[in-house]
């Protein structure tokens, strides 16, 4: 049986695109088997494995326990790979937060966070309020968060939706000052409106792979 075109050694640009897609899949979906990744990319398992092996500093494999027959490999991102995704001016942001707190005090830092929250809320409301349904508001919020680098998506559940943020571009700042995370949860509740109940169910700063919010209609 002849190999399909995607099994041939890729051109440099095409190879880079495939590798970027692999990293994006692992970032947005979590650990995946070689077969999972091959199906998502619509290329063969051997071709997928070759791409993964060329990313040895960015991905690593673990044997999947409990599998019948030959154990499958599950691929994960390394810490180095996380740096391939945008972290909005992390070092400078953390330094500024520390300087504000040390020179002006905790109250001043809280005031800065509150002002950022007010500005963001006003901008979001201007774009989300025209959407009359909760589903429409949630879709618009997801679009806005994705534009800001959060790699956001929504999943329908039996009783509502899950708002998933697969990346946090302000993670370093959030680790330095968790007030950012508190303000974002309150922000979602305000812009989605009084008929929405929003609960954080997964949290990066507590060891989660991503931040996730359950949204239901009251």
Topology:
Blueprint lengths: L11 H18 L2 E2 H8 L3 H9 L5 E5 L9 E5 L1 H4 L7 H15 L1 H23 L5 H14 L4 E5 L3 E6 L5 H6 L2 H14 L3 E7 L8 E7 L1
Antiparallel strand pairs: 1-3, 2-3, 4-5, 5-7, 6-7
Provide the descriptors you would attach to this structure in a database record.
single chain, 9 helices, 51% helix, globular, disordered N terminus
Walkthrough of the structure:
The chain has 218 residues and is of the alpha+beta class. 51% of the residues lie in helices and 17% in strands. The protein has nine helices and seven strands; from the N terminus they run H-E-H-H-E-E-H-H-H-H-E-E-H-H-E-E. The strands form two sheets. It has a four-stranded antiparallel beta sheet with strand order 4-5-7-6, covered by helices on one side. Strands 1-3-2 form a three-stranded antiparallel beta sheet. Strand 6 and strand 7 form a beta hairpin.
């Amino acid at each position: 049986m002849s190999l399909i075109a995607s099994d041939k050694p890729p051109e440099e640009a095409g190879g880079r695109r495939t590798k970027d897609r692999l990293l994006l899949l692992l970032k947005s979906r979590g650990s995946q088997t070689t077969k999972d990744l091959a199906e998502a990319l619509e290329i063969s398992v051997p071709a997928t494995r070759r791409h993964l092996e060329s990313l040895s500093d960015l991905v690593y494999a673990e044997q999947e326990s409990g599998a019948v027959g030959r154990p499958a490999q599950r691929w994960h991102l390394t810490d180095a790979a996380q740096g391939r995704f945008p972290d909005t001016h992390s070092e400078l942001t953390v330094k500024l937060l520390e300087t504000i707190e040390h020179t002006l005090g905790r109250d001043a830092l809280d005031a800065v966070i509150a002002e950022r929250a007010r500005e963001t809320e006003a901008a979001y409301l201007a774009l989300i309020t025209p959407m009359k349904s909760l589903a429409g508001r949630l879709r618009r919020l997801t679009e806005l968060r994705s534009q800001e680098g959060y790699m956001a998506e929504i999943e329908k559940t039996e009783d509502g939706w899950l708002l998933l943020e697969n990346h946090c571009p302000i993670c370093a700042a959030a680790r330095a000052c968790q007030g950012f995370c508190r303000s974002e949860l309150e922000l979602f509740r305000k812009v989605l409106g009084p008929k929405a109940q929003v609960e954080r169910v997964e949290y990066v700063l507590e060891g989660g792979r991503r931040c996730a919010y359950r949204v239901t209609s009251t």
